[in-house]
Design a protein that fits this description.
It contains 2 helices and 2 strands. The protein is mainly α and about 100 residues long. A two-stranded parallel ribbon has the order 1-2.
Length: about 100
């Protein structure tokens, strides 16, 4: 089957007040993805939130565009660095298909 990655929402400054609700929702999503993966599906969950936060745990303005919602070049580069090895693992031909 096809490889799929579910990307969690980012801790964007424009929606940072919703973070607790987002975390609860994505815990459920992560559980569903893990169950599918355990059944052999080529699926993974990526929560790249830390790549978009400062050491103090607040959104890093340098990682977002001026709209405070969408990732900017730095944020996309950080997320790609996390996503690349995950995709390589999912697309590994040695891994049995779902």
């Amino acid at each position: 089957g096809a490889a799929r990655v579910y990307l969690a929402s980012l801790p964007a400054p424009a929606r940072f007040g919703q973070l607790e609700r987002q975390v609860r929702a994505y815990e459920l999503v992560r559980g569903a993805v893990e169950a599918l993966s355990a059944e052999g599906a080529r699926v993974a969950y990526l929560d790249a939130a830390e790549a978009f936060l400062t050491p103090a745990g607040t959104p890093d303005p340098e990682a977002f565009l001026d709209d405070d919602l969408h990732p900017g070049p730095l944020g996309n580069a950080r997320r790609a660095a996390l996503l690349r090895p995950l995709l390589e693992r999912l697309l590994d031909p040695a891994r049995p298909p779902a």
